[in-house]
């Protein structure tokens, strides 16, 4: 167990404050389906050694958000899933590179297991060429789960999803979406409900 002092302030007010105790949560495949285990057993990417700070932790949380809310601290590269009784699960994430990151308040509008990927025109222009459609699976950059963010009932085109590049957890290199390891996104997905609130803080709003 480690003690950390943290203050996160965003446009929506005080979110995380004071000293937090962080307990490393033992990795578990309890929420993985047989399909998950089969696909991950033959993943086409090398398993990365994630720095301890970016592994899944249970932490003290003194924010005002209700249980079930997701809070993304893009500056610190953490995603918090708020739990009852002043606790949260903290996951390490990859966030959008400068100029590509999205911030704001959204709702979970869609949930998908091993989602297909249809690259947007912007991604094709900046990073392509890619196939027009990539089927779900471990070679797909969306990874094992997709949590789709909607604003005022419309798809923002930003997602919280898995990755086939776990070595970049803790960095800012994505096209704006929030990436977790496939194991962590499966765990998060098992907890998230449709309609849940997602708060993504803009860069520079955490201390």
Number of helices: 3
Strand order of the largest sheet: 1-4-5-8-7-6-15-10-11-12-14
Roughly how many Å is the radius of gyration?
16 Å
Shape: globular
Order of helices and strands: EEEEHEEEEEEHEEEEHE
Based on DSSP secondary structure assignment, what is the total number of beta strands? 15
Q: Average pLDDT across residues? A: 85
Proportion of residues in β-strands: 35-45%
Distance between the termini: 21 Å
Low-confidence stretches: 3-19
**Structural class estimated from helices and strands:** mainly beta
Please give the share of residues in helix: 10-25%
How can the largest sheet be summarized?
Answer: 11 strands, mixed
């Amino acid at each position: 167990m480690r003690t950390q002092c943290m203050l996160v302030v965003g446009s929506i007010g005080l979110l995380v404050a004071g000293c937090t105790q962080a307990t490393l949560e033992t990795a578990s495949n309890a929420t993985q389906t047989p399909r998950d285990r089969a696909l991950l057993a033959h993943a086409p990417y090398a398993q990365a050694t994630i720095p301890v700070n970016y592994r899944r932790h249970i932490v003290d949380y003194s924010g005002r958000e209700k249980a079930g809310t997701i809070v993304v601290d893009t500056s610190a590269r953490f995603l918090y899933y708020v739990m009852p009784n002043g606790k949260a699960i903290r996951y390490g994430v990859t966030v959008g590179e400068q100029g590509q990151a999205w911030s704001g308040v959204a709702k979970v509008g869609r949930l998908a297991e091993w989602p297909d990927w249809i690259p947007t025109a912007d991604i094709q222009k900046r990073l392509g060429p890619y196939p027009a459609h990539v089927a779900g699976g471990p070679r797909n950059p969306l990874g094992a789960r997709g949590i789709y963010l909607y604003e005022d009932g419309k798809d923002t085109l930003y997602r919280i999803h898995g990755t086939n590049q776990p070595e970049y957890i803790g960095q800012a290199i994505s096209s704006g979406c929030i990436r977790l390891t496939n194991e962590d996104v499966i765990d998060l997905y098992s907890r998230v409900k449709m309609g849940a609130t997602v708060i993504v803080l803009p860069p520079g709003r955490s201390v």
